Each structure stands twice: as C-alpha cells, then as structure tokens.
Amino acid sequence: MAERSTAAVDVADNGGDEPPTAQAEQAAADGAAASEATAELPVAPENEDARDGDAPAEKGAAAPAPELHSGHKLAKRYRLEECITRLDGFSSWRAVDEKLRRAVGVHVLPADHSRARSVLAAARSAALLGDARFVMVLDAVEENDLVYVVHEWLPDATELTTLLAMGPLEPHEAYRLVDQLSQAMAAAHREGLAHLKLTPSAILRTSTGQYRVRGLAVNAALRGITAERPQRTDTEAIGALLYAALTQRWPYENDAHGLSGLPKGVGLLPPDQVRAGVHRGLSELSMRALVNDGATASRQEPPCTTPEELAKAVAEMPRIRPPEPAFAAPPEYQRTTYQQGSYGRPGSGLPGAPAPTRPVPVPPPPMESRAGKALKWTAAALLIAALGVGSWQISEKLLDRTKDSGPSPEAPPRDGDEKPAPPADPLAITHVEEFKPNGSSIQRKQVPNTVDGDPNSAWITPEYRNYPNFGNLPQRSLGSGIIVDLGSVRNVSGVDIDLYRGGNTVSVSAAAENAVNPTGLSEFGRQLVPEGTKGEELRTTFEPVRARYVLIRLTSLPPAERADRFRGGISEIKILGK
Predict the structure, then answer these.
(1) Which residues contact 246 (CB under 8 A, 6 or more apart)?
(2) Closest CA to 449 of 569, 576, 553, 572
(3) For residues 573 and 508, what is the distance between their CA atoms, to the nearest angstrom?
(4) Hey, which residues does 90 pair with through a beta bridge?
(5) Neighbours of 288 (CB within 10 A)
(6) Positive or negative CA dihedral for 161, 163, 168, 171?
(7) What pLDDT digit, counting tens, does each position of 19-36 carry?
(8) For residue 250, is pLDDT > 90?
C-alpha cells in the first residue's frame, strides 16, 4: 500500500465568508483527505469545548506565518505542493518526500511561535510511540527559523465523518470501532501521550477495515489544547464517537461534525432510546464512557474514566459477530426436456417451496414401419402447404379492407386516462442560509443573491484546484449549497433553479415535515430530485411533498476559466407548490 500522509491539520471551522486564506480550501485540491497528527502534553484546566473539536487557541499565541509557497523545499527534501490550511500562525501542506518519492503532510510554523517548543516535543514523543494504530510522525525538525512536522499520508482511508454521513454503523462495525480506539488510546496513555481532540474527523478507516487515529499529540500542541485529566477527556471522546456511530447523532445539544445534536432540555439519552434497534450492550458501554458528563448508565455498572478501563469493559462484553453474508440462491438444476412439468416451475428452488416431485419419464413410442413414417411426412407436408395458402388469402383480404376504409380516426381519449399535472406556483421564501455540514462557510454574504430575483447575481463558490468535488477537501466531503425555509409547511411539488453555470452536480431534498432548523445532511432524508449533473437550469416537478425546509446541494463543480480549477454556484431559486 502506497504511503500517503493524512497529516495535514483538520481545517478550522472559521465561519467566515471566504475559505481560510486564498489557498486554504482551494489549494487542498490534490490533498484528498487532509489530516493531522494531534498531540498533547498533559495538564491545564479542562476545556469544555474540546469534546466538540472546536477548542479555542491560546490568545496572543500566533506569530506571523512563514511566507511559504508551492515548490518551496524543506531540508532539501520535502517539496511543498499544496497548502491545506493556514491558521493561528501555522500552515499545513501536502508535500512530496523527494528522497523516498512519496506524498507526505507537513505542518510548518515559525521557530519563535509560542507553541513551537511544545509542538516539537509532542511530535517527537508521538514518533517514538511507533504504533501502527496511529498516523505516524515521520520527522520533526527546526531549521532556518522554521519548525516543521512531517506525517504519513493515507490514500486508502475514509474519515469517520464520511461514514457517519451515510448512516449509523451496524453493531459489529461499531464494536470494532470502540475496541480498536480504546486499545490504541490505552497504549498511548501508558506512554504519557494524550489526544484531547478525538472527533470523527480524527478517525480514519482503511480499506482493510482497520481504524487509525490521526492527531496524536501534535494537533493539541498546535492548538494549545490542554486538560486537567487527559485520560478522562479522551475516554469521554471515545464514548461520544461510539454514541454517534450507534445513533448518527452527536451526544450533546449542539450540532457538530456534520451531525445533529440531541434535543435541547432532555439531557443525555441512552442510544437505544434515541434510535430503534441499537445494540443494548454497546448503548450501555457508550453511557459508561460518557458518565463523566452527568449521564448514568442504564445498568448499575461503574463508569469508565480511562481508555484502559474502557478497553477492559469492551473485552468483557460478549463478542458481537459480523452479519451473515447474503449468499445468492444457487441456480435451479435444469432438467432435460423429457422430464415433463419440472423445468421453470414457479417457486421451485425457493426457500419454503414444496419439494418437487420426481418426474416420471415418458416411455418411448413403439417402433414404426417405413410405410407409416412416409405417410406421416406426406400428411405434414400437405398441412404446411394448406396453412401457407390460407394465410396468404387472409392477408390479401385484410389489405383490401384497409385500402377501402382509409385512415382510421384517432381514438378519443378515455375519461380518466390522463390527469393534468396540478398547478404549481412559486412559494414564498422567508429565509435562506448556506449548507455547511462541518460548520465552515464558503460565501455567506452571497446567499441572499439566490432569491433576489436578479439572475445576474449569484452565490458563487471559490475556485478549487484539481478536483471538482470542492478540491477533495475533507471539510467539503458533503458538498455545500443552500437551505430554503418556506416559513411554514407547504405542499412542495417542483423546483425552478438557475445555476451559475452548467455542469454542477446537484440534488434536491426535503427535511421531515416536523423538522426545526435542520442543518445536517441526515436531516434532509426525503429526496426530491436525484443527484445528477445539470445544465444551467433545473426545472422539474414531482409528487407533492409536505415540507418547510428544502436543501439544494452541490457535490461537484464545473470547470472554471483555468484548466485545473473548478467553480460553481446558484443564481436563482424558486420552490413550486401550493
């Protein structure tokens, strides 16, 4: 497997109108899954926001970011290719290790940055761990007034964020997730290393099914995140990841990581009360890890306050077996033609069908004389000739009748055959906002342009390099678009959308009738227009759906003016119905 680092830091949710710097999102185009190794040096007051992955950095910590550019070479070896992000005085890059001819990720910050010492120490400690369950730190150097940390790049890995966007994990996969994470973090804490930023974007699943943790030590050091009890913080984070894997919900009131939070004011409900069919043992296990936040386990089991305790609790559970593979039914044995009544019989070979009776072979006919055979062939020939003459005469009469009668008038339509489509008028739109599944805006100030009645104004994305799927950026893996609020539940039966240019890949979906301010993709579960590449207009009608919120989502962008750039957008939106 080719090595490729996912070590670029997870892009900040800046909430601004532009991507983080001119290169930050666009430049990640080639860097498919930007990632980061996050490390932490223990102790300091626990930060409440750390569980959501949005802990604020230290005030006044940022020094001017070094002026680097694509093509710059570090240590005469690491050639910078694309900037993944710039944040708080440091930058993260996709680079090429020219010595080993492989892709790597690099974090760079000035040597006089207030966190430079802790970043170097954390990276070197993480590199010494040498555990394949973590994204590896390959190098940590101070040179020419710069500090840089080099990480491996994993081309075959998928973020847990992406997996959860498709739905909850089945029980065996959720069991593997918590088992591997708890064991990995227990090993890290035995060496004095903590993570403190375990979020869905920090967990990668490889093509072989192994979960790997990115961000051990370095990310927390880069962000200045610390905690009084790092083991407790990491254990609670693993419990939150298991909760999300079981329910596709974030176990706190605030939405985070592309997932909807719990309803406000109800507290932390056990997973099996949030979603039907959740494995009871895993539900209790997640509550035992989350008990630190005031939850109580559904049984009187002690809470898990360290990854070691959580790993032991997982080991004590009855092992959850993988689902049985679905085997196709074997093809039915095709009997020979002399076994009458058995070939292609309905229901044969299917489970529950009555067993077929053994066919009785038909005895061969008695021997015939030569004279009998000749008589039989003669009779057959006469019959064929008679049939040919008769069919010719019938066809001639039919042709003559058609000529005499002339063209037949069209049959009048029968009542009730065709029902005219119900009339659909543009519905009033009370509010529009940007769809930002990971909390990061693209062009927030341009959103009102989509409903201003002016086709010359639009919500237009920045240019993304090399990849039409928003530069292949992790924080754009679910695309972007516009959420329309109709003010009240209406009968929605069509859309009339003008796109910024042709070639956008677009889908339209609606939230549930009782939805309130939905923001996550999972909340727009009713598909109105299937995802597909559209021209400059999207005009269609469909069966009426009762909805208040409609999402117009872009997942792939058309080429921009430059050959390696991509840009799209939406000019005007009209929702049709009654």
Answers:
(1) 168, 169, 174, 271, 275, 278, 279, 282, 283, 286
(2) 572
(3) 11
(4) 87
(5) 24
(6) negative
(7) 333 344 443 334 333 333
(8) yes
Tally of CB atoms within 10 A around 49: 11
Evaluate if pTM is beyond 0.85.
Answer: no
Instruction: Note the pLDDT tens digit of each residue in 114-140.
Output: 999 999 999 999 999 988 899 999 999
Map tokens 């759906």 to a residue.
Answer: 545
Please report the pLDDT score of residue 422 as a whole number: 54
Query: Do 461 and 444 form a contact (C-beta atoms < 8 A)?
Result: no
Complete domains list, the chain, with CATH: 26-152 (3.30.200.20), 160-316 (1.10.510.10), 425-577 (2.60.120.260)
Residue 80 identity (one-letter amino acid): L
Residue with tokens 């690099």: 106
Report how far residue 363's alpha carbon sits from residue 283's, in angstroms, rounded to the nearest whole number: 67
The H or E element spanning position 528 is strand 526-533
Q: What is 107-175 written as a DSSP string? A: EEEETTSTTHHHHHHHHHHHHHH--TTBPPEEEEEEETTEEEEEEEB-TT-EEHHHHHHT-PPPHHHHH
**Predicted confidence (pLDDT) per residue in 278-324, tens digit:** 999 999 999 999 975 555 555 567 899 999 999 999 999 988 888 87
Specify whether the CB–CB gap between 181 and 238 falls below 8 A.
Answer: yes
Task: Tell me 414's DSSP state.
Answer: P
Tokens at 288, concatenated: 């035992």
Q: Secondary structure of 316-378 in the HEC alphabet?
A: HCCCCCCCCCCCCCCCCCCCCCCCCCCCCCCCCCCCCCCCCCCCCCCCCCCCCCHHHHHHHHH
Report which secondary-structure segment, H or E, holds 555.
strand 537-556
- Give the integer Cα–Cα distance in Å for 572 and 453: 7
Strand, coil or helix: what is 450?
helix
Tokens coding 255: 């939405």
Measured CA to CA, the distance from residue 219 to residue 222 in angstroms comes to 5
- Cα gap 560→448, rounded to integer Å: 23
Task: With H, G, I as helix, E, B as strand and everything else as coil, classify residue 92.
Answer: strand
As a whole number of angstroms, the distance between CA 147 and CA 65 comes to 11
Residue 298 φ/ψ region, left for φ over 0, alpha for ψ in the -120 to 50 degree band, beta for the rest:
alpha
What are 293's two structure tokens? 């936040």
For 509-540, the pLDDT digits (tens) are: 999 999 888 988 888 989 999 998 888 999 99
Look-up of token digits 């033609």: 337
